[in-house]
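Task: sequence design from structure.
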């Protein structure tokens, strides 16, 4: 009699466990429906949409100025029939060595051309978004790479998409020698472009 009782008890316990598990599973699925990708509560977005939204947020910090487009000099007869060169606003960096103090947590995009150096004020942060950059420092101390937890010294490569912190004035980044394209740098804090 005892073995029959043990088998019956085990079967009832197993059936009860399966029944309780199915109720918990159904309840969890019902609560999780809103978190599934592609629903109204969690829409699927593309990278271009996210980039566009980020640019809208950053638009307040970008300095725009009109830049004349270059056109070949027309002949005297063609000059009478042509329209003047048009200007279009473009995002530019601060072109003079006047320091930009920045304000709080605002980030701006700065274009650094070959031969230029982007010097940070104390406490500024840079993220190299495009191009190959090297660290510029006048002393033996360097720049903190907060992403990898390293200290980068003068002449070392500044990794792309890493948060670089500049603890003192006079340190910065420059375009790596031999590069024909400039840098695109996201800057938070004071800086000077020389």
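Answer:
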């Amino acid at each position: 009699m005892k073995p029959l009782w043990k088998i019956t008890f085990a079967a009832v316990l197993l059936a009860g466990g399966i029944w309780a598990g199915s109720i918990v599973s159904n309840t969890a699925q019902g609560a999780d429906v809103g978190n599934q990708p592609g629903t109204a509560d969690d829409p699927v977005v593309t990278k271009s949409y996210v980039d566009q939204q980020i640019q809208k947020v950053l638009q307040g910090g970008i300095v725009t100025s009109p830049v004349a487009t270059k056109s070949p000099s027309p002949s005297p007869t063609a000059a009478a029939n042509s329209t003047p060169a048009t200007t279009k606003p473009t995002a530019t960096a601060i072109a003079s060595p006047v320091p930009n103090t920045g304000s709080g947590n605002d980030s701006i995009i700065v274009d650094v051309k070959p031969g230029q150096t982007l010097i940070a004020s104390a406490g500024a942060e840079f993220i190299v978004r495009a191009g190959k950059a090297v660290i510029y420092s006048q002393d033996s101390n360097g720049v903190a790479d907060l992403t990898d937890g390293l200290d980068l010294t003068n002449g070392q490569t500044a990794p792309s998409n890493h948060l670089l912190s500049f603890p003192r004035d006079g340190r910065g980044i420059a375009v790596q020698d031999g590069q024909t394209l400039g840098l695109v740098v996201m800057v938070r804090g004071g800086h000077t472009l020389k």
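The first strand starts at residue 64 and ends at 68.
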